[in-house]
Design goal:
16 helices; 447 residues; mainly alpha; elongated
Length: 447
């Protein structure tokens, strides 16, 4: 359950969804795009263009590389600043003082949780504030965001308030559990985290995301596009009702292009950003939708929940042993009584933060696997209905990469640590070379 703190902050503070799917960036001329995306007949194999890589003009490439490097540096600086800040909170006995204050004011456990956890998580939020502000400055500087600082602060306050309420509730539940089961709390906390995680994913698109962006039924705003998307759905032999297709007004805050699938069960839906519709041709949008349809049809959200559940179990088990070791050696010096003491919270969060940092490459690798599957599904589902579908898909990645300022040819180390999607070079090459039909083979996902 403590492992869910980070998950809750991501789910509640951000306005993106699980498995958001940026496709790439970069484009040739607009005339070339329309020429390649609007053909009415398939070209013969001899006429097929040779595979091309993701490229940017020299000035834009330098800007994309600078943007990527700045974000990478900020990531590590944020991690360092947060870990040092947590260590200082422990060394300065801030949590024990908050605990003593809570115990002095009230005898009721929930009120103590509010009095302790409220100020503690506000302090923790302040530790991440410089990096968050720097990240928004970078997005504005590099043309990814048009959101003003006033709107950004308001969004941060809304997301922070919701996350704070959830964090207080989790702290109250968690320490009650530790008190009742000192040896097995990690397992029972994991069991308790699962329904909470599923509930958060369920309510995110219905309750949380509308706090940050406006969503309208796609069929109401663009019935012609909705009809084209429905044709792709039918070609894939699936049923995605129009009521589960939404348009998001991303342009109110962002220049970047995107689409994603979110929710679970009755709340599951496909969302297309209005910036994507404004910048892409209909065939390109159909491929983007096909990719997102792949997440939907291949149950990637369900698979992601199972993956996250496994990670939470490992983190909580590791947190249990790390906390027991740390308190056995330093507990008296830190003025922490035991594992069921509210004041142990920063120690446990510190341990899980380290685990999460170490686990990042594995998490990214799994995400890249899902995204590659969605790329493959997208190619399969538009084949035969979108002319020159492989070139349209490659062009979609190119366009989105240029607008999103994706870095060309990232190093292997950067890919492993930062990329939760395959690099655009790989995706464009795959889009242009994946052709089971020409080999007389059956596609894997769309028969």
């Amino acid at each position: 359950m403590v492992g869910l703190f980070a998950t809750a902050l991501v789910l509640l503070t951000l306005s993106s969804a699980a498995f958001a799917t940026p496709f790439g960036s970069g484009a040739t001329s607009w005339a070339a795009r329309f020429q390649s995306a609007s053909q009415n007949t398939e070209t013969s194999p001899a006429e097929q263009p040779q595979p091309r890589a993701y490229t940017l003009p020299p000035d834009k490439e330098a800007r994309a590389i600078a943007y990527a490097h700045a974000r990478h540096q900020l990531y590590f600086l944020d991690f360092l600043f947060t870990t040092v800040g947590l260590a200082l909170l422990v060394q300065l006995a801030v949590a024990p003082r908050l605990r003593d204050w809570a115990e002095h004011i009230s005898r009721h456990r929930f009120l103590r949780a509010v009095i302790f956890a409220g100020p503690f998580f506000i302090l923790l939020g302040l530790l991440s504030l410089p990096a968050a502000a720097a990240g928004h400055w970078l997005e504005r500087h590099y043309g990814q965001s048009v959101q003003g600082w006033g709107s950004w602060v308001w969004d941060a306050l809304k997301g922070g308030a919701i996350a704070l309420l959830l964090a207080i509730f989790l702290v109250w539940l968690f320490y009650g559990l530790v008190r009742r089961s000192p040896r097995r709390w990690w397992f029972y906390a994991w069991l308790g985290s699962l329904p909470i995680l599923i509930f958060l994913i369920f309510v995110e698109p219905v309750v949380l995301e509308p706090l940050f962006f406006r969503f309208t039924p796609l069929a109401a705003r663009d019935p012609q596009l909705a009809a084209e998307l429905e044709r792709v759905v039918q070609h894939g032999g699936q049923e995605i009702p129009e009521t589960r297709m939404y348009l998001m007004n991303a342009s109110s805050k962002l220049n970047a292009l995107n689409a994603y699938v979110t929710g679970i069960g009755a709340s599951e839906r496909v969302v297309v950003w209005d910036t994507t519709i404004a910048q892409m041709t209909t065939p390109e949008i159909l491929f983007v939708f096909g990719h997102e349809m792949g997440h939907y049809v291949l149950h990637h959200i369900r698979n992601g929940i199972l993956f996250t559940a496994g990670v939470l179990l490992i983190f909580l088990f590791g947190g249990f042993h790390a906390l027991r070791w740390a308190l056995g050696r330093f507990g008296a010096a830190w003025k922490i009584r035991s594992a069921d003491d509210w004041a142990s919270l920063p120690v446990l969060i510190f341990a899980i933060l380290i685990f999460n940092f170490i686990f990042t490459p594995i998490d990214n690798a799994y995400s890249r696997h899902l995204e590659h599957q969605a790329d493959q599904y997208g190619l399969e589902v538009v084949h035969g209905s979108v002319p020159n579908s492989s070139q349209v898909a490659a062009q979609s990645f190119q366009i989105l990469g240029e607008i999103d300022l994706a870095e060309p040819s990232p190093s292997t180390a950067v890919k492993i640590w930062f990329y939760d999607h395959p690099p655009l070079d790989e995706r464009i090459l795959f889009a242009q070379t994946y052709d089971p039909w020409d080999k007389g083979e059956s596609p894997e996902f769309v028969k």
